[in-house]
Structure formats: structure tokens, C-alpha cells
Amino acid sequence: MDATQALRTPRDRAKATVLTRLPRPGLWLLALPASLFFLAFFVLPTASLFALSFNKGVAGSVAFTSALTIENYVRVFTRAIYYEAIGRSVGIGILVSLLCLALGYPLAYVIAKTTHPGRNAFLMILVLSSMQLDMVIRLYGLMVLLGDNGLVNGALVASGLVSGPLPLMYNLFGVVVGLVQVTLPFMVISLIGVIKAIPPSYEEAARSLGASRWAAFRAVVLPLSMPGILSGSLLVFALSISSYVVPALMGGWKVVTLPIHIYQQIAEAGRWQFGAAIAAVLFLTSLLAVAVYQVAARRTAGGRA
Amino acid sequence: MRGGETIPLPFKIGAAIALTVLLVPVLIVILTGLNSGDYLTFPPQGLSFRWIEAFLTSPTFVPAYLFSFKLAAAATLVSTLIGTAAAVWLSRTLSPLGAVLRTLFVLPLVLPGVVLGLALYVFFTTSGIGLARSFTGLLVGHVIVTTPLVIATVTAALVDFDRSLEEAARALGASPLGAFRRITLPIIMPGISAGALFAFIVSFGQFEVTLFLASPDTQPLPIAIYTSLRYRFEPTAAAAGIFAILLVIASTVLTSRLVNFRRLFGGR
Question: To probe the interface with B, which of A42, A116, A128 has the most B CB atoms within 10 Å?
Fold first, then answer.
């Protein structure tokens, strides 16, 4: 910093300005590798998946044909099981978002308000490392905990509270618990920054004007944390509806969501074109959530301005 | 205790419940991997290293662990290089193309992992470029997921960077590349390292994108553990988990040394 200050004579500044204004041919070359990579391995593949979903279904074949058909989409939208799967996926996504918000908000609030640097870093490390740990490994822990012979049921039966094991897994309950465990850190991290950015003086002002602690929180802090609540919920929703491994392990294929249908159609039935159509529906559902989020975000921002 | 006193009790209780949900499964994995019984029952039996031993001599888990390590290292290298370069241009350009690319580079995070994996598999198979079920094909899938993380972290580091430092170096006669290498790069290095670490961890634990791209002989650790959980319920998977946990703890401590969490998530 001192070196910059020393250079800040008018002449040096002028010289530096001239140099920055010089055209820098070739700087764009820096973005070229990533751009080409994304074009070749992201844009093209996604486009071909969409193209495939408009092809006639041929069992076991991925080959493209030029004749277009919407039969795959008609099938998705005329059969009850796919409607149910869409509803189930969206319902689970909303439920998990609400649960993550209820659990994640207090934790994010505590982390945001902890000023002690060591304790703050420790809490952050706990949240980040639990997020970074392989999802399958965390689900294994949950399975040991919730299974019929698991720790919870073992303790309940041993204590005589229940006569037989409770169904805590291979059902909707297990899937929801698994998804909450997996997505909670994303909610917490989305909220921390937003809560931290609210000046404590706002809450103090409300308190000094006679608001109770709870009223001050509800009238001041909660509305101002809306952007974080929205982005966290969006993230959790998108991750929940697109998860394959959680319904597979915690639901034991009994809770059939869109990703489970996609995998079964392709890996087990070899119906590539139809699987691609379900994948397109899943992607569009995610995009729809993003659109709803943007409308909601604009509305809350507009309300504040 | 300064900060602790201003937090109302219900928030503290809520936070404790949330931390329990986050950490108990991890604790259970460690207990299972170190338990001497065939399975973690209640109450747990004695402590033993038999499952750690079973993991270290396992014909499936050790190769899968090494494979995941190799894959994550390669994905980190590629995504750090192309991601950092792209972030440098993106943070300095005013061209409309920059805005388009910024959107393109975050899109893989919105696209469901299963859909991305499926799209890549269809693309590899139909285009006949020989990447289906290959190491390179898997690497491509991982790089698509890890590059957005590198770009985000490096961009955050570049936003804070004081451009006048670079201008000063140029004014003193350094070439553009020299100024970048000797001034900019050392200053944004913590951001690049953090991005690389995120990339490594995300690639190491990647499941959904990998699902369609892996084959029995190119099997990363999460798929190997998943397969073993699907048919059996052996604590060897938990022992494999312990090694993954150690890796994550090491990387998180390292990350906390490199970046100031408060600046990364702090607002102000």
C-alpha cells in the first residue's frame, strides 16, 4: 500500500493511466480455453440431449434420427405416474427448503453474530467441512442411524418405548431427512453474508423505539434477510429435486422422483429418448424455480427501495 | 463472550439442532469404521482397526480411492488453469461478451447433475469421439462442474485487487505479463488456491455427474461406496469414509489459512 501511495504523484498517475488505456490485444485469449471447453462439453451436449428427447423412441438406441416427434413429451404428460413424480419431486423440494430454512436460519444468525474470531472460524469450518464431505458417506451415517437395526431403533426397542422398529428409512421420511442433511450447509452459507450485512444499529433503533426483541427481529432483521432466504431456498430446492443418490439410498427406490425415473428408463429399460424427455422436464422445472426466484427477488427489492 | 451475549436463546438452541443434523452422521461414520462388531449396533461394541485393515486390503476401495484422487487432481489442475485465466479477462472486460460468458460459466451449477452426466454420455456416445466410459470423459464432466467454482473464487479475489499496484509496476517498466506474474498473481494467489481446493473436494465427492460416465473399471470412490451400500452394508465403506473425512478436514483447515472466511461470506 505504501509503495502505491508513494507513486501517486500526478506524473506517475498520468503515466499509469495512459498505460491502462492502451489497447490490450490478446487479453481475450485468456477466456478462450474455458469458453471453447464449455461450448464443446456443455452447450453441445445439453443441446444434443434436447434434440434426442424429440426423437422417436427406439429401445437400446441412442442414435439420432432426423424425424422429429413429441411423443416422448406426450407420454410424460399423459401418464399419471410421471405427473405424480413431478408433483412428488416439487413437493419434496418445497418441504426440504422450508425445513432447511427453519434449521439453517438460527445457525446462520449465530455464526453471523459471533464476533469472537476463533469461535467464528470454528463454526464456519464445521459447516464447510460437513458440506464438503462426500454425500454418499454422510448418507451412510444416516443409514446406520435410521435403519431397522440402526442406533435410533436399537435404542427405542431396548428402552421398551416401541415394540418393533419404526419405519424411519426407505420411505418419504428417510428421503426428506437425507435431503435436509445434504443441503442444509448451502442454506446456512447463503444466509450468513446477508444477515451479517444488516447493520446492528437498525435493530437497536427498533428496540430503542420500544419494540420487543422478537418484534424488532420480525420487523427489521427478517425482511432484510429476504434476499438470502430466497437464494438459499432456491439452491436447496434445485439440489433436492435433482438429487438421485438421496432417494436411491434413503428411499430404497420406493420414493420415485424424476431423477430415479431418468435412471431407470435409461440404465434399466434402455429408453434413451424417453429418459432424455424426463431430463428435459427436470431441467425446465429447475429453470422455472430460478424464474420464480427472480420475480420474488425483484418484488422484495422493489418493496425496500 | 462479547458476541455470545447478544444472541437470544431460541437461536442458540436452533443452531445446536442444525449442527447436530450436520455432524451426527459424520460421527456415526467414524464410529462405524472403528467399531469391532460386524455392524454398528446399540450399544456399540469395542474399538478396533479391523475395518480400516479391510479397507486398506480391499480390492475395490483402494483402487477407487486412488482413482478418485487422480481424477480430482487432474480436474483441479485443468479447471484452475482455464478458470483463473477466464476470471482475469472477465474481471477486466466491459464487452457484452463478458456478460454472456459469465452466465454460461455459472449454468452448470443450475443444471441437475444427473442431466449433465446424461447429456455428456449421450454426446460422447453419439459423436463417436471415443470419450464414453473413459478417464478423459469423466475428467471432462468434473471440469465442467469445478470450473465455475474456480471462476467464482478467483473473481472474488480480483474484485478486491487494487489495480493501481499493477499500473505502478507497468509505469516502472514491467511488461504486462511481468507485472501480472510478479504483482497480481502473488496477491490473488490465496483466492486461486482456495478455488483449487474447492475444485478438488467437489470433484472427489462428485456422484451425480459421475453416475452415467463411470464404468466398472473406472470407478471413483463415491460410486464404489454407493455400489457397496446398495447390495451389502459393510463397515469397510465407513472405513473408506474415515479417509475421506481426514482429507476434508485437512483441506478445510488449509482453506481457512488461505482465505478469510469473513471476507468471503462477510458482506462487510
Answer: A42
Interface probe, candidates B7, B9, B21, chain A, greatest A C-beta count within 10 A: B21
The per-residue pLDDT for range A268-284, each reduced to its tens digit, is: 888 999 999 999 999 99
pLDDT at A109: 93
> Cβ neighbours of residue A294 under 8 Å, at least 6 residues apart?
none
Side chain identity at residue A159, one-letter code: S
At A9, is the secondary structure helix, strand, or coil?
Answer: coil
Q: Is the pLDDT reported for residue A291 higher than 80?
A: yes
User: Are A264 and A34 contacting, i.e. CB atoms less than 8 angstroms apart?
Assistant: no
DSSP string covering B144-175, please? HHHHHHHHHHHHHHHHH--HHHHHHHHHTT--
Q: How many residues does chain A have?
A: 305
Among all residues of chain A, which has the CA nearest to that of B254?
A125
Contact residues on chain A for B222, CB-CB shorter than 8 A: 134-137
The answer to whether the CB of A244 falls within 8 A of the CB of B211 is: yes
Residue of B nearest to A253 (CA): B230
- Residue contacts between A and B (CB atoms, under 8 Å): 328
Q: What is the pLDDT of residues B151-160, one digit of tens each?
A: 988 888 887 7
The radius of gyration computed from the CA coordinates of chain A, to the nearest angstrom, equals 26
ipTM: 0.85
Whole-number Å distance between alpha carbons of B28 and B257 = 28
The whole-angstrom separation of Cα B98 and Cα A38 is: 14
Q: What mean pLDDT is predicted for residues B183-203? A: 86
Distance from CA of B235 to the nearest CA of A (A): 10
